[in-house]
Amino acid sequence: QKVKNMTFKEGQEFKVRIKPDGDSDSFAINIGHDPENIAMHFNPRFDCNGETNTIVFNSLSGGHWGDEHREGNFPFVRGEECKFHINFNNEQFYIKLPDGSMMNFPNRLGDVKYKYFNVSGAARIVGIKIK
Fold first, then answer.
1. Biological process GO annotation list (predicted)?
2. Distance (Å, rounded) from C-alpha 54 to C-alpha 52?
């Protein structure tokens, strides 16, 4: 699912509600410039590639993936809608998870405005707000 004509700028808050499928193995949220240049790839894995209940972060620059960053905190449940908030600046992305915990990931592309957003995998977008 792609969202078109969206601009997400430094200092704004991006709120997204997502519902993973009941049998979801994983889903991902991508924020960046285009499919080859993704500043934040946020990939909760219920059971995927031998990993269970792990969040994997990464970035994609010119079609090349960077180093993966893993988080063990996993407040997602298959089939249950979840809500999280994303903020960023030129150095970091800040993600507030459904349980209220915070995590961050470096803004490796270093930009303060992104226009590309998509959700892939076994989940659907319920709602999006930027303010």
1. sprouting angiogenesis
2. 6
Of 115, 114, 68, 66, nearest to 88 by C-alpha is 114
Query: Using only C-alpha atoms, what is the Rg of the chain?
Result: 14
Distances, alpha carbon 36 to alpha carbons 31, 49, 56, in Å? 11, 22, 18
| SS3 per residue for 70-114 | EECCCCCCCCCCEEEEEEECCCEEEEECCCCCEEEEECCCCCCEE
Q: What one-letter code names the amino acid at 97?
A: L
Helices (H), 1-63: none
pLDDT, tens digit, 9 for 90 and up, residues 106-126: 999 999 999 999 999 999 999
The pTM of the whole model exceeds 0.90:
yes
pLDDT digit string, tens, across residues 58-103: 999 999 999 999 998 999 999 999 999 999 999 999 999 999 999 9
Query: Distances from the Cα of 93 to the Cαs of 17, 49, 104, 106, 122, in angstroms?
Result: 18, 25, 5, 6, 23
d(C-alpha 82, C-alpha 92), whole Å: 22
